[in-house]
Automatic annotation (TrEMBL), chains A, B, C, D, E, F:
This enzyme's EC code(s): 5.1.99.5
UniProt family annotation: Belongs to the HyuE racemase family.
Species classification: Bacteria, Pseudomonadati, Pseudomonadota, Gammaproteobacteria, Oceanospirillales
GO MF annotations in UniProt: amino-acid racemase activity; hydantoin racemase activity
Catalysed reaction, written as an equation: a D-5-monosubstituted hydantoin = a L-5-monosubstituted hydantoin; D-5-isobutylhydantoin = L-5-isobutylhydantoin; D-5-benzylhydantoin = L-5-benzylhydantoin
Name of the protein in question: Hydantoin racemase
Organism: Modicisalibacter muralis
Length: 246, 246, 246, 246, 246, 246
């Protein structure tokens, strides 16, 4: 089984870290390829970064299709371009935010999210509402860490994350914590150990969900709104997207 | 990995069928044990059957704990006794209805449920609302098949199910169908072939979710309302449940 | 009119107290019988206790049916086994949580709940959502009192309850308080006097609702999912539940 | 106990009929007074009729207060002026729509409403949402009967109501029917007999709820937004409402 | 274009202030007439004040119809009598609360409301839910200022409002503030300058929405529940409302 | 006032038509510029088309900023890239779907949408839920017209739209119809005349809302998640988006 993990931002060190985390958790027969778009933002910290990154996600899905990948993961907590990506393939496509939410509700009745910046909290709130998990999440918390600080070994990011997770544990009346950034994929164990609650991280959760769906023989439905895009002309820099063939 | 699959009703043929379906889908390293309570209803077709069956589910969890099972599946579409069961173990416990709903939302934007009897539709409606998937399900349909007809090879159950699934496909504006009874675990492929839509069946979905959670090292949170039951006396026929030790 | 009040736990002193409270509030022509199951937990403080207690509730409904009771009350704040119980009788069956919620919305626009233990708060949250009252309840508060402390005259339970109710009054922007445990049935007046807000207790509320429904000639609908259970075999210790006759 | 039943429209024959229905269902010790405002619409069939009728409702509450009534009923299915009325008294005030909804959810999991005119259906929809019962009601149906046709013995209103109720029973997957007009207070038994489902009518339901609240010693909360109106000047034809004293 | 602005209370100084604010913001071709009912409360601070004021609103709509006004504004933050008013005219009718909410969602993802008295907060909560904006509003705050203090130049009302708005800005995680009283129509600029967030005031918002609807040729739909009232008799002091002609 | 209308697809004839419709409705002092991206899909009929088009929308906002436009309109019914666009400017940005929904709720209590293709209905459903209007919309209908058929004078698109709108009027219990495609901007009057209900079209609605916001001095909040993007590097074909200056 080949799972193609797409880091929607263009920071290679983060892609590497995400790929490592995915590989560590993958089943013996699963091959992980981790990639990021050639073009796009170095980190995703708002609606605009998200919108632009969706183009890169789509390109990486198309690239994965050429390699006949069995499943795709969109490794940014806002799940940018998720429905668009699903149109492009029969394989399952999983966002790391949705993956984390699904897993959290299977082991707890209420959870909180600890994310990077306050300004991205709204993205998590929108996802919770769209996916149906608004009532299961007590609170969206931000440790106020710029995403790329997670790439900086000297930063105090881990300590601040642990502090915020402890506050969530003590104040939020929850059973689990969801980490709200793909860049935290390597910190799950440390945070969980420090906090003493189940801590769910989306990249690893998504790998196991992808394996599950592929194992079930389930892929993105091609009946209805997730069918392949209607063939049509695209212009300009997107001309290569014209009349995509399934 | 050892997954203990609990059929909450007491019909051994159905337990066998469910166990077979679970085993077929399980990963190479996964061992499936399928069981049903010694006491309880032969089928679950309403709130009362569900309530009684929850006792048997709890007993089977305790039995599984003695064997140090790694995960549990409650193989009845109403997920009877799910939260109670979760209190009894650190392992993950997954209901087949929730499993099917989670998987359905990962491959489609809207789905319908095809279940057995109209009177059990309300159980599915309640679950959809509690789990947060009410907006993702277009319609709960019943083929009006008593559960045990699914055990009767000569019955027209399969044909009627296929008919109802085709109506769902043609009328409901959906991308996937969820089968609403554990007794349909062996029919998924036939129905999917006949209908041409992704068809999601809960037993198999739950096996893969259980493998996923175990793979992630995640189990039922013992922080909050899913912690082990507070030690206390139980009386009468339930005296053996007194002061349960984790 | 005969109202059969079922205390779902097996603590006789609590049953006695609940029966007294019910009798005090009952109309002249109403006879109260208070009972508890022979088997089950001595207190209900979680999902597991609830699930087991539902069996006893069902048995007590069947017992009440032999005496042709006119209505039933399930006197535990989680309303355990409520829908199952309704299948077993044409008489009305009322849970004390729902009773309290209904009454609270008739005299205030917003209320808070003060319950025993934090870990049972989730049960109240689920009921509020299922019954439709989630928006009417500002907050579910716990005084962190084990249920059986309410049976101990020397405990500080009352003082702690009053403290929590005062916090609710001062902080929650509410018009009424709902007491979240059947074991508080004898404390309503003291708490209300101390707090100065309407305080609604479920046992007494349920008695008056039961009288109301019986007075209206209304009983549990036998059309649809609350019809008598479909006749079927039950096995083992539940064999006596086979083919229940209406 | 004195329950003051206010018919918000000015049709005396309907007031009489409502009073009769209330008296028939009242407990032995309950005295019913039925009244209608001197000023206002002869029937309430829309938002405008409702708004004007709220003034009369308020005046009748004030009149009832002079007689020290123990409870009030607003006998129009839109519950016009309900929250305003509650500000004017320490006694409970109950609308017949809310009364019917509460009772319906105690005996069924889903109900439908059969009302008079399609254009008033939106009023029921708004109430269902505000009260929290939107998910419990399958459908709001109109028999397209002008309200005053219910006062005309020669009309086909009853037959048309029965037809619509039968359609609700057969098509809506429900356990009970709520009648959507105070003018149907005398038809409940005939309709219920003809339809074979529990039929809930609001006037009678409200009488029993009022008796229940009074029996519990509960009245409208004077803490918060239902406290007596802040003393202030009213001008013109409403000058007599200035500085109302509790 | 003629916009008739109705202050539902009877305080002329507030009507004048509201008219001034409306005129200042109106387009060159727009004529503003500001009025208040002859009869009713001098301020609106609860459900009862609202209910009575709805009569005056209706009378002022009828008065405006005689002058063939092109649009109406109900200039009290509870939007009293809004749906009733819409039945009386083909012109658009806009409440200042809804106007402010609509505008707030166009420039921010989340807002808070700062209103006068805590007891009126529930009115805003109900409107948010009915209009669909409950999820967009973080918090309803009250500065605990009686409405008529806003008419008193010597009061500390402005200072207290600014304080509360600053708390909203700093604590609520919002992008905009909605002012919750028509009497604040002249304070928007001062508050906005002091707080540094977009501040939305309903009177001015409603003027621009009214101009927008008239510009689009859109008026209140006369198809369905907002059609003109069914012709019928009104009695007593409301006899003049009988058989209203469109 | 300068309103920059962005047609997110790249079909110039549609841009022209949209610009004409916008100009016709604009106030005397309003200048409309209509544009479309150089790159992107010729029509938007699904999630993928939407995601790609968001890039072009962002580019056109940046282009408009250089011209100091006072407001922006995104003239595709899915409001693609709306929140991203808002980050890029202090001016208001309005999507035509939200514009139409806001206007519809001001003149009716319930509306239906008539859109082009069934597969895009889900986009409207998501928007309704996110914006809070899910309860106000009775039904999302599709006339099954490919978007570019609206550009083909010889097509039967208009006739089919009118048929579907009439069905909405007769079956949906609504007061107004929302047209679900920017390409219908020139058909509003014909459809409204043929159907006899208020018909709301988003381009024109958005122009008037944009004028309203500008008139009020309100622009996109720069406090919180709609603040300008955090300065950062963009790579590849998006390098020109690095460190955008407000």
């Amino acid at each position: 089984m080949h799972i193609h993990v797409i880091n929607p931002n263009t920071t290679a060190s983060m892609t590497h870290k995400i790929g490592e985390a995915a590989s560590r958790i993958a089943a013996p027969g699963t091959r992980i390829s981790a990639t990021n778009p050639a073009s796009g933002p170095v980190s995703i910290e708002g609606h605009f970064d998200e919108a632009i990154s969706a183009v890169g996600v789509a390109e990486e899905i198309r690239s994965g299709e050429r390699e006949r990948a069995d499943a795709y993961i969109i490794a940014c907590f806002g799940d940018p371009g998720l429905l668009a990506a699903r149109e492009l393939t029969r394989a399952p496509v999983i966002g790391i935010a949705e993956a984390a939410f699904h897993m959290a509700t299977l082991i707890s009745t209420r959870f909180s999210i600890v994310t990077t910046l306050g300004r991205t909290g709204i993205i998590a709130e929108h996802l919770l509402q769209n996916y149906g998990f608004a009532h299961h999440c007590r609170r969206v918390r931000a440790a106020e860490i710029p995403v790329l600080d997670l790439e900086d070994d000297g930063s105090t990011a881990l300590a601040r994350l642990i502090d915020e997770c402890r506050r969530a544990r003590d104040e939020d009346n929850i059973g689990a914590i969801v980490l709200g950034c793909g860049g935290m994929a390597d910190l799950t164990e440390q945070i969980s150990d420090a906090v003493g609650l189940p801590v769910i991280e989306g990249v690893t959760a998504a790998v196991k969900l992808a394996e599950a769906l592929v194992g079930l023989g389930l892929g993105t439905s091609k009946h209805g709104d997730l069918a392949f895009p209607r063939p049509k002309a695209y212009t300009g820099q997107f001309a290569h997207l014209s009349n995509l063939e399934p």
